[in-house]
Amino acid sequence: MAFEGYRHGEAGFRRVSIALFAGSFASFGLLYCLQPLLPEFTRVFDVSPAVATMAISMCTIGLGLALLVAGPLSDAVGRTVVMRWSLVGSSVVTGLCAIAPDWPFILAMRALTGVVLAGFPAVAMAYLREEVHASSHARATGLYVGGNALGGLSGRLVTGTLTEFGDWRLALAGTAAFTMICTVVVLAVLPASRNFTPGTRGLRASMRGYRAVLGDRGLLGLYVVPFVVMGAFVAMFNIAGFRLEAAPYLLPVGIAGLIYFAYPIGSISSAVAGRVADRVGPYRVIAVGFVIAIAGMALTFATPLWLFITAITIVVIGFFAVHAVASAAVATRAYAAGRPVASAAAIYLFAYYLGSSVFGTAAGSAWRAGAWPAVGWMDLAILGVGLAVAIALWVANSRSEPVSEARARSVSEPGSP
């Protein structure tokens, strides 16, 4: 009898769930762990805020590009091989950042981190679909996405806290050690593939898939959404630490890093937005999410600390609503149009991380030119473009087709920033 996948309650399912949670926790912890350290880098290496933000942008652009080839690579050499080496390599490279002799070395290592790191998020969902029974996909996916959110939060908190007790080198060494522990868990418990068939989808087939999805106008509009919403989101958080360390707040790195506790609220927002989208359609929810993010960004101009924190939380709520629904809408649109869903999801993630790279660095230049007001106006302009695109998509898809949202969503869960 053919293997149909691990079911909830079975030992194999528990092993898969633990491995995917630990792996996603590690990978998303490594991706943005340097964000709280950006103000520290400007002082230690005597670089501008715009140059400091490149420590994030180099990693995300490397990740975005590598995502396009990591999937086809796993088709050739196997899912678990790519997932395991991705985590081992990215943890080691982050550890090398802790002994960096100069700033160019850090940037080179961060770019390499992004490239190596791409293997896990690019392949994890494909592995899950192949090795977990369809009736248990939702449970396993929920743990994976939960690891994304907690990893992104913890990576930032660990570096911020360790910097208070030592310096940035201790922070990066501690983060690398912590993620290596998660990697050991993955190496120990991740079951070998049982439903994987090698060589079914090579690089040429992937390129054909990418051309197919880029030829769909509806998908092109949806790709603008992650580009702008992720760009605005990362721009805000890249510079929030600079603002909180400056007058009138003068907060230390460890305390300023507490703003990332807004993330769990965003996770709730994404779940609620998904349920609402099932009732009223995705494009309306995406537009409302942009309105919420714009309202929150407008409030960040206020000086009182409590109001600034509240404003950032509102932006987080809007961002997660947009991201959760847009990622599912891409898969739904691709499925309805007969386009390859995996290719559509890969391009979505590429646009997502490209926006992070472009606007995350631009925010540093805006901060240097006009402090927070310049950053705020830049983000408002970016989000305004996103709102206009969302409204256009809403109008164009006012009568959406009843495609299986659950099926599409299970194919494309890109995770959290």
From TrEMBL:
Bilayer topology annotation: Multi-pass membrane protein
Limits of the Major facilitator superfamily (MFS) profile domain: 16-399
Keywords assigned: Cell membrane, Membrane, Transmembrane, Transmembrane helix, Transport
Location in the cell: Cell membrane
PROSITE patterns: MFS
Segments crossing the lipid bilayer: 16-38, 50-70, 82-101, 107-128, 140-158, 170-193, 214-237, 249-273, 285-302, 308-329, 341-362, 374-396
Gene Ontology cellular component list: plasma membrane
Domain of life: Bacteria
Gene Ontology molecular-function annotations: transmembrane transporter activity
Keyword Nucleotide-binding: no
PANTHER family listed in its UniProt record: BLL2771 PROTEIN (PTHR43271), INNER MEMBRANE TRANSPORT PROTEIN YNFM (PTHR43271:SF1)
Entry's family note: Belongs to the major facilitator superfamily.
Protein name (database record): MFS transporter
Provenance organism: Epidermidibacterium keratini
Lineage of producing organism: Bacteria, Bacillati, Actinomycetota, Actinomycetes, Sporichthyales
